[in-house]
Amino acid sequence: MDRRSKHLSSEERGVIFAEHNRGSSQGNISQLLGRPASTICRELARGRQVDGSYCPTAARRVYDERRTRCRRRRRLVEGSSLHRFVHDHLVHRRWSPEQIAQRLRHMKPDDPSARVSHETIYAAIYAQPRGGLKAAMVEALRQAKPARGRRRTTLAGSAMVPESLRIINRPEEIEARQVPGHWEGDLIKGAFNRSSVGTLVERKTRFVILCKMKGNGADAVLGSFSRQMKRLPAALRKSMTYDRGSEMACHPELARRLKIDIWFCDPHAPWQRGSNENTNGLLRQFMPKGTDLGDATQTWLNDVAALMNNRPRKTLGWRTPAEAMADEIAAFRSTVALETGI
Fold this sequence. Notes:
Layout: H1 10-22, H2 26-33, H3 37-46, H4 56-70, H5 81-91, H6 97-107, H7 118-127, H8 132-141, H9 172-176, E1 182-189, E2 196-202, E3 208-212, H10 218-229, E4 239-242, H11 251-258, E5 261-264, H12 274-283, H13 298-309, H14 321-340
Parallel strand pairs: 1-4, 4-5
Antiparallel strand pairs: 1-2, 2-3
Helix pairs in contact: 2-3, 3-4, 6-7, 10-11
């Protein structure tokens, strides 16, 4: 029996009306319709009139009223504070539904009525009528990444990578993500590969730094990465893992300027920079394919990085990268203070 047949139809109510007037028992009516006797009993009670007769119209009206009352109330009602929180963090801060749900759980651990699940958020988005608000919320869910399964293409080996700098020789402590200061780097390319933005992601905290580029060549990478990474404490500049693109041709000078180790992935192996690849996909929300990135200012890139760094992350126990980085810096300063006796 399908879901629709669980509810009495108008034709079945007509049969109940005729048989009841004929004096048939509830058992006979249930056998005639192939329905449980309890269903016929409840239906007759819903449509019972003062004189004891059965009215199918009254029965249907009572049935519909009860169905309306038993429906589950919507958790995200437009205009409520909860709806505003979800909408603002989704559209303006570009948090994912899961990040929003977990932050609400963290903020209101003892008040189930003040939080929602990520599935409820998805359902509320797609249940909205068509229009600008729905379009904005659906747009916030998209990564606008390339076709699924499409491989990243790089000029493998064009940076003349020495054997000693291959990722296979990278220390195990970097792979374990136990110590901060190890970064993954890449470029996000703009329209026709004529512009780009440098992206750096710290492996342990997932902290993001974005770098304005003046071109796509090795000199641009050297200048931009040096400028942005020198803003970090020296203790947070231990290593960088990059692919084999020609833009890293000046890697010896970059390593010298920053006093940093640089490691190179194997050809066509973007998963060896997994944190950076994932971040680049998320950044496409702000820098869609086909955009001219030459107009992006460092101030705007800093704002985008702040949005990324203040999103709660599942891999960080729903802390934000900014919070995780702040903890690492505080721990470093505390260690230095103890060692120097200050």
